[in-house]
Amino acid sequence: MTPPAAPAAWAAPDWTPPAAEVPAWSAPACEHPTWEPPALARAAARLRAPAFAPGSVWLAGAGPGDPGLLTLHGAHALATADVVLHDALVPPEILDLAATPQREAVGKRAGGARTAQLRINQRLIALARQGQRVLRLKGGDPLVFGRGGEEALALVAAGIPFRIVPGISAGIGGAAAAGIPLTHRGLARSVAFVTGHDTHGLLPASLDLAALARGAEVLVFYMALRQAGPIAAALVAAGRAPDEGVAFLAEATTPRQRLTQATLATAGAVAAGLPRAAPTLIVIGPVLALGDVLAPLLQAAPMTVAPEAAPRPEAAPRIVTPPFGVPDPSVRTAEARTPPPRPAPAGTAPARTALSA
Fold it and tell me: Catalytic residue at 303?
């Protein structure tokens, strides 16, 4: 069951709506025991969002997939941007939070559609020079295997102001959602994050797997499903035990999350039977043993996104009310909202004024 959207009026601080206006909703036990939109809205109302200036670019991470792991800066950018250029790994639930209908898919997926990085850089610059507020939205963190650094350098060369909005990287958020601590006292004091393919989809020639086998107790591989067999063989050849645990974590932090376990000896065969289209992390190390202990009581349900009350008009002028605190002076805002009066003194009949929608 999807919780209803919280009315915008609930964002007004120091005001509690009448009990009749507060929807009662609860999910199955141990998932979302309670859901309290006013509390979330009141917390958001105290935040002061920075200006997303026209003619600038924000390079933002959308997190690993769960909309609840999107940062507040990222949510503000989605509510304010004039155009969103997004990767293929950004889920539709997060894209639906964008206030603008102008969204351009510029993702790169192995074996699928690809947009040249130079073309993405040029598009960011062109849109910013038109005076647009440009949001470049990437899965995970923009600077962890996201080519955010390349785009930042291109913006600097073109004289375009920009902001980098960090996101929760899939390797961290995904492992946590599966109950896998990447470090643990007595088991693992080091972790390495590694890309599993180069620009041609092959295992990077410069990747020193022997050094990684010796240098980090826990290894997290991104985009490495097609190369799982060669990676496992190289690690065993470098001294890792053939029976060391391997976890394949697909579509982490989403309702479709799947965890498949193997060992270094069986990793190649197991990987061959997994769907290639699903984004999959590979985690290797002694901490995998903790997953079975933590899993029975682990709560990992993702946040959901309620549908809007009415379809967003595609051709209407964009009118934005920033979601947090003081309105951003660089954007046109909806008419001012007057907070309702405070409760009347005891013994008098309280009166409430309805807020404009």
Answer: no
Q: Are strands 245-250 and 258-263 parallel, antiparallel or unpaired?
A: antiparallel
Annotation says 108 is catalytic: yes
Q: How far, CA to CA in Å, does 12 sit from each of 15, 19, 44, 142, 352? A: 6, 16, 10, 33, 14
* pLDDT tens-place string over residues 32-83: 444 556 788 888 889 999 999 999 999 999 999 999 999 999 999 999 999 9
> What domains are defined for the chain?
50-168 (3.40.1010.10), 171-297 (3.30.950.10)
**Whether 291 contacts 211, CB under 8 Å:** no
Helix-, strand-, coil-residue percentages of the chain, each rounded to 5: 30, 15, 55
Q: Is 223 a catalytic residue?
A: yes
The pTM (predicted TM-score) of the whole model is 0.75
Residue 230 has pLDDT above 60, yes or no: yes
Active-site residue among 82, 87, 141, 328? 87
302: number of Cβ within 10 Å: 21
